[in-house]
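During the no-cost extension, the postdoctoral fellow (Dr. R.K.) reprocessed legacy sequence entries with the updated structure-token encoder. One reprocessed record is reproduced below for audit purposes.
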Amino acid sequence: MAPAGTSSQAHPIAIVSLVFGIPSLTLGCCCWLHIPLGLTAVVTVGFGIHFGNQGRGGKGMPIAGLVMGIIALIAYTILANIGVAAQLADMPDDPFNQ
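Re-encoded structure tokens follow.
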């Protein structure tokens, strides 16, 4: 049972953070989707936690969205940089002299 003055329902912004955090992890490897999805999850966390502090919903969903968004942004950016570095390493020194 929720303490007096708090709501047991999640605020829609908290749900948005979680909804964008999950696909940022699962779809992040497709077409650089981790950037807009992860950033949206991270940006909406501030609003979700703010509303949670005011007693208009919990803070669990926004924090989960924050963690997933940050993990996706860091992990997929590192993997993308490794992929670009591997491609550049395989290129000939002078691509115009064949």
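The helical segments are 12-26, 34-53, 60-90. The chain has a mean pLDDT of 85. The remaining legacy entries will be reprocessed before the final report is submitted.
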